[in-house]
TrEMBL record, chain A:
Protein name: Oxidoreductase
Organism classification: Bacteria, Bacillati, Actinomycetota, Coriobacteriia, Eggerthellales
Residue span(s) of domain 4Fe-4S ferredoxin-type: 4-34
Matching InterPro entries: 4Fe4S_Fe-S-bd
UniProtKB/TrEMBL annotation, chain B:
Domain of life of the native organism: Bacteria
Annotated region described as Disordered, given as residue ranges: 759-786
Family: Belongs to the prokaryotic molybdopterin-containing oxidoreductase family.
Protein name: Molybdopterin-dependent oxidoreductase
Pfam families according to UniProt: Molybdop_Fe4S4, Molybdopterin, Molydop_binding
Cofactor: Mo-bis(molybdopterin guanine dinucleotide)
Biased composition (Polar residues): 769-778
Key words of the record: Iron, Iron-sulfur, Metal-binding, Molybdenum, Oxidoreductase
Residue span, 4Fe-4S Mo/W bis-MGD-type domain: 18-75
């Protein structure tokens, strides 16, 4: 199976925490001290006169991008449930094309 | 997009049941599509979003994704329980059978019926949950009392907007057009993307209000919609808006008047639409002629050019749309703010056009049945409803008791005494609902008998009740999801039980069980399926089992229904108002003692109405902003959700925090002449320097549950700072989001602790007591001079 990257079009990430809960359920992470993906928040601050307020979800070492789900043709649990539909799992070779399509404000993780 | 006919299938070792979510635990009737997986023994395994659901398309919010944690929570109420009246406030509950519970309830209700009359029973209902449909029938068709309501002061949630809508618009609930009626959604050829969306006092991402799927806003932003956000808070959406009108809380009507001044004054409105479908434009034009953005700036703290720019952008970019939020309800001046907002959408020609504001003839489903159960009360008893008729005739034409008048009646026993409270999906002493909560608590604790139905033990039940019935979670019962409660319902969703509820039952099942004991003629159905069939058959020739196979049934929809006779029960073109037109000047408000045109009035407690008070309490406090991980007072005991948001937060601007020596995370004492509470500081630019935002709905399930502590329900209770009975002329609207306060650093939550037994009520119980400032124009005080 081809290795995938997690793309987050974070200009649309609303900080809803669905990815965190979806991951917790899928990976059966019971301890609140552990996580498979976690939101980081930046702002709100005025940068050059414009508001800057972004969330980005960062996968942890427990993340395998739901390899078993990908093999079944499903999306990773976080991607599947993302309320803003701003996450996707993309084969590494297709990342540059997809990044070009999504424009500014995108993060790439290869967990 | 189509959904499979099979709603329950085997998938490997598991059983997969499709359902549409509602409550409990709490949410609005969004009807999110999901699959619930159970094992061969019926145990819950996991939940997964249904990618074929037309609205949510696989997405789920964190509250549903924590389903396993609430289904198996040790604190849930699993069976009926009783407690001696003398032990109210003590954790001395005793498990009993359903039969015994029903015997107790029946005996107590019949005793009150015979001794005092059914009107002495009060049903205090919660918000948004399935209870919205099923609590009024419990009052009217089971207990036969006309006295029930959602109990915010001024009924300040949804009711004001729907009633303003009924009076002026006559067309259900006006909702942003997000192509929700169309199977192909945004790709439907009839649809257009709104150019601008005004989010007025609304944060739909977190609140999913009344059945609107909040993240549809993101869907539309991706498709090009721009935002105009009218909100005292810099929400995340406001940070991405073209225009953010960061107004002083409670001045929405002034914003609305100024926007109308621009749109009418600069001749930016839709003349063709107004000529045919709008009543009272000339009078409105005259009213707003001097309400310039420059007039509004010192009132609202919003720069005139921002108001003017937003008004122009909205009016000059067709189609555009407006969503109105709870902030319209939570102010005395809300009826006027709502009137201005509806007028703005109407005169720009955005009503029921593609990409505008969808309208509807309220449907014949449960929404109507819910209110028609009033027939079981009987005319004589109905007249005894405590609805403030003399003071607020506009309110009394509605379906509910008037919460402020009810509190006065509780305390004065005039015109009669209440003897029983029934809490239906509601934890009102936790600060979601009752303002001045200690007054309510002290009045209700005197009742002969109190009971509740709920899924978790709450401070309200622990403090006040003698009997509690266990309510099943939505994955455990069959149900019928009705977005917007039937007032503008894009689809009907089938809720299918997937997990064994044990002894718990759904709200509807409890209505039926108790109803068959107390008033069987109102409850002819033997199963919920029979009931749902009867509801669906009022409009369609198929039934509940068909709905299970449809999954989500999107109702037929047409634009410009007013041209086609589809908004009036009589089938005539136009709107369901007295004039048949959208009334920007009301033809009926005069009968209610209300100004037919929108006007601005200062909040009762504000920098300008109470300047002396403002010297001691120099901050404006707004409340009620929602979090993704809770529904008002719910979900506080769900570990994964609480870990994300462990503490009640008061949002303070960095400059203000520095002035008071408060750092991020500090405990903060918030106080005003009415009361105090403690929350923890979130120091951020989300609020301007003169405003703080304090969260509502907080209690601490991990704290001592017994009275007076009651899980710490008084410590962070922001509604202790909110007055009862500061409502508008219509009886609607109260200042939950606009009072004054001061802040100081505290050592911990204990600084907010209280014992209701030591509570000293204000000298006056009535509506004239809160402020030391002048009376407001057209306020209760003017109508009732001392």
């Amino acid at each position: 199976m081809e290795k995938h990257a997690l793309l987050i079009d974070y200009k649309y990430c609303t900080g809803c925490h669905s990815c965190e809960l979806a991951c917790r359920q899928e990976k059966q992470i019971a301890s609140q001290d552990e996580w498979g993906i976690k939101l980081a928040e930046f702002g709100p601050e005025k940068l050059a006169g414009e508001w800057y307020w972004n969330y980005v979800a960062v996968p942890s070492s427990l993340c395998d991008l739901c390899e078993s789900r990908l093999e079944e043709g499903k999306k990773p649990a976080c991607v599947h449930h993302c309320l803003a539909k701003c996450m996707e799992a993309v084969p590494l070779t297709e990342v540059p094309v997809r990044l070009a399509e999504l424009g500014d404000g995108v993060a790439v993780f290869v967990p | 997009m189509t959904m499979d006919k099979e709603w329950r299938v085997e998938e490997g070792d598991l059983i997969r049941t499709r359902t549409c979510g509602w409550s409990p635990p709490g949410c609005h009737p969004v009807g999110c599509g999901m699959f619930i997986y159970t094992d061969k023994d019926g145990n819950f395994v996991k939940v997964e979003g249904d990618p074929d659901h037309p609205i949510t398309q696989g997405r789920l919010c964190p509250r549903c994704l924590a389903m396993g944690e609430f289904l198996n929570h040790p604190d849930r109420i699993k069976y009926p329980m009783k407690r001696a009246k003398a032990d109210r406030g003590k954790d001395k509950w005793e498990r009993i059978s359903w039969d015994e519970a029903l015997d107790i309830l029946e005996t107590e209700v019949r005793k009150i019926w015979e001794t005092y009359g059914p009107e002495a029973i009060y049903v205090s209902k919660g918000t948004g949950r399935e209870a919205t449909e099923y609590a009024p029938p419990m009052a009217q068709a089971v207990f036969k009392t006309p006295n029930n309501a959602f109990m915010m002061s001024g009924a300040s949630c949804y009711g004001p907007r729907t009633v303003i809508g009924d009076f002026l618009l006559g067309a259900g609930y006006p909702e942003l057009d997000y192509a929700a009626f169309f199977p192909d959604r945004y790709d439907d050829p009839r649809y257009e993307v709104p150019k601008y969306i005004i989010l007025w006092g609304k944060s739909p991402l977190q609140s999913n209000p009344d059945g609107f799927f909040g993240h549809a806003i993101i869907d539309l932003m991706k498709r090009g919609s721009k935002l105009i956000v009218i909100d005292p808070r810099l929400t995340w959406l406001a940070s991405r808006a073209e225009f953010h009108l960061q107004l002083r809380p409670g001045t929405d009507a002034a914003i609305g008047l100024a926007m109308l001044n621009v749109v009418i004054g600069e001749d930016l409105y839709d003349h063709a639409f107004c000529d045919e479908w709008v009543f009272g434009l000339d009078e409105l034009a005259e009213r707003v002629a001097d309400k310039t953005p420059e007039w509004a700036e010192p009132i609202t703290w919003v720069p005139a050019d921002v108001i003017r720019g937003a008004a122009r952008a909205f009016a000059m970019n067709a189609p555009s749309s407006i969503m109105w939020g709870l902030a319209i309800d939570t102010q005395q001046n809300g009826a006027q703010a709502g009137q201005a907002l509806l007028a703005l959408g109407a005169i720009c020609g955005y009503m029921d056009v593609p990409g505008g504001i969808t309208l509807a003839l309220p449907s014949s489903f449960m929404g109507r049945w819910t209110y028609e159960t009033l027939q079981f009360v009987g005319e004589e008893v109905e007249k005894k409803r405590i609805d403030g008729e003399e003071d607020h005739p506009a309110y009394a034409v509605g379906p509910y008791a008037h919460p402020d008048s009810v509190l006065t009646t509780l305390e004065t026993e005039d015109p009669y005494a209440f003897h029983m409270f029934y809490f239906y999906a509601s934890n009102p002493i936790a600060p979601t609902c009752y303002a001045e909560p200690e007054r309510w608590y002290n009045a209700i604790v005197k009742m002969d008998f109190n009971a509740a139905q709920d899924c978790f033990m709450t401070p309200t039940i622990m403090g006040l009740c003698d009997l509690v019935l266990p309510v099943s979670f939505f994955p455990e019962h069959d149900g019928f999801v009705l977005p917007h409660f039937g007032r503008n319902t894009h689809f009907l969703g089938a809720m299918n039980a997937a997990v064994d509820p044990g002894e718990a039952r759904s709200d509807l099942e409890i209505d039926m069980i108790v109803g068959k004991r107390l008033n069987p003629e109102a409850w002819p159905w033997d199963t919920v399926e029979e009931f749902f069939d009867a509801q669906i058959h009022t409009q369609y020739d198929w039934g509940f089992n068909d709905l299970r196979e449809f999954g989500a049934f999107q109702q037929p929809f047409e634009y410009r229904k007013y041209e086609k006779g589809m908004l009036r029960p009589d089938g005539e073109p136009g709107f369901n108002t007295p004039t048949g037109l959208i009334e920007v000047s009301s033809s009926i408000y005069d009968d209610f003692g209300e100004d037919p045109l929108p006007y601005f009035m200062e909040p009762a407690m504000s920098p300008y109405s109470t300047p002396d008070l403002y010297e001691d309490y120099p901050l404006v406090m707004t409340t009620g902003g929602r979090s993704f991980v809770s529904f008002h007072s719910e979900h506080r005991q769900i570990p994964s959700l609480r870990a994300i948001h462990p503490d009640p937060l008061v949002t303070i601007n960095p400059k203000t925090a520095a002035k008071y020596g408060i750092n991020d995370g500090d405990y903060v004492l918030i106080e005003n002449p009415l009361g105090k509470c403690v929350e923890r500081a979130r120091v951020t630019n989300e609020v301007p320097e003169r405003v703080i935002h304090a969260e509502h709905g907080w209690w601490f399930p991990e704290d001592d549950p017994e009275a007076p502590n009651l899980n710490g329900v008084w410590k962070s209770n922001v509604n202790r700072l909110i007055p009862m009975y500061k409502v508008g002329v219509t009886g609607y609207g109260a200042p939950y989001k606009n009072v004054l306060c001061r802040i100081s650093k505290a050592d911990g939550y204990e600084a907010g602790a209280a014992d209701p037994a030591l509570y000293e009520p204000r000298a006056s119980r009535g509506p004239e007591s809160m402020t030391n400032g002048p009376s407001q124009p057209a306020s209760y005080e003017v109508i009732h001079p001392e």
